Amino acid sequence: MLDWNVYFRGLAVIGAIALVGWVIGSARRNVTIVDCLWGVFFLAATLVYANARWTPRATMLAAMVAIWALRLSAYLTLRSWGKPEDARYQKIRAANKPGFMGKSLYLIFGLQTLLAWIISLPLAVAAQSSTPLGALDGAGYALWLVGFLFETFADLQMARFKTDPANRGAVMDRGLWRYSRHPNYFGEFCLWWGYYLIAVAAGGWWTVVSPLVMSFLLLKVSGVALLEKDIGERRPAYADYIARTPAFFPGKPRAAASGRNGS
Questions:
Q1: Distance (Å, rounded) from C-alpha 198 to C-alpha 201?
Q2: 202: which residues sit within 8 A by CB, 6+ positions away?
Q3: What's the pLDDT tens digit per position in 137-190?
Q4: Helical axes 121-128 vs 33-50, angle rounded to 10°
Q5: What is the C-alpha to C-alpha distance for residues 104 and 94, in angstroms, rounded to an integer?
Q6: For the chain, which residues make up each domain, given as ranges?
Q7: Helices 121-128 + 209-216 axis angle, to 10
Q8: Averaged pLDDT, 96-100
Q9: pLDDT tens profile 245-261
Q10: SS3 readout for the chain
Q11: What is the pLDDT of residue 1?
Q12: What's residue 263's pLDDT?
C-alpha cells in the first residue's frame, strides 16, 4: 500500500534539489548540472520513501539506488566538468531567448523534477511494503545487476576510447559497443525493469507506468533517437556502424559491405 503523503514528500525533496541546481546553473549560465543531479533525485526520494519503514526490501532497494545514483552522477559530473553547456541545452536556450534562465526553471529543472517523481513510483511502493521478500525480488535484483554492469562497463569503455587521441572522429565499435549501439541505455533499461519487478513483488504491479516512461525516453526522446538524429552528418562512418550493429538490445553484429569503419 502506497502512502501518498510520503510519495508527495519525495516530490518536495526532488523539487528542492532541482531548485538548488537551478540556482547554481543560473549563476554559471550552464544548466548541464541537471544531468548530474538526475541520479541524486532518485536517491533522495528513495531515502524519503524508505524512511517510512526500513524493511529488508527497503534497505536493499536504498543500497541499490545509492550505488547506481552515485556512480551515474559522478560519471556525468566528471564528463561535463569544465566543458561548455551540453548541445541539447544550448538548442533549448537559443529557442527560448530572452529570459532563458527564468524559463529553464520549469522547462528543464521543473520537467526533470516531475519526470523523476513519476518514474520513482516503483521505488516508493517497494520501499514502503512490508510484504516478505520472494522470488520476484530476486529476479529484480538480478536484472538490476545486469543493467548496472552493462551501463558501468559501457561508460568505462567509451570514456577510455575518447581519451585516446587516435580515436578522434572515429566510431566506437568495441567491447559492449560491438553488440549494441547504445549498451549504456540498454543497461538503464534493465535497471528500471528490475526496480519494477521488485515493486511487483511488493504488490505494485500498477507502477508499470515508470519503466514504460523510462523505456520511451531511452528509445524515442532523450536517448537513442536524439543521439542518432544527426550523428551520420558528423560521422559518416556511423552509417556502416548502423548497418552492422543492433540499435539497442545486444545482438550478433551483422556483416557490412563496406567493412570496418576504421575505428
A1: 5
A2: 57, 125, 126, 128, 129, 131
A3: 999 999 999 999 999 999 999 999 999 999 888 889 999 999 999 999 999 999
A4: 20
A5: 12
A6: 1-130, 134-263
A7: 150
A8: 92
A9: 998 999 999 876 544 44
A10: CCCHHHHHHHHHHHHHHHHHHHHHHHHHCCCCHHHHHHHHHHHHHHHHHHCCCCCHHHHHHHHHHHHHHHHHHHHHHHHHCCCCCCHHHHHHHHHCCCCHHHHHHHHHHHHHHHHHHHHCHHHHHHHHCCCCCCHHHHHHHHHHHHHHHHHHHHHHHHHHHHHCHHHCCCCCCCHHHHCCCCHHHHHHHHHHHHHHHHHHHCCCHHHHHHHHHHHHHHHHHCCHHHHCCCHHHHCCCHHHHHHHCCCCCCCCCCCCCCCCCCC
A11: 76
A12: 35
Q: Grid coordinates 526533470 are at which residue?
A: 112
Phi-psi region of 259 (alpha: psi -120 to 50; beta: other; left: phi over 0): left
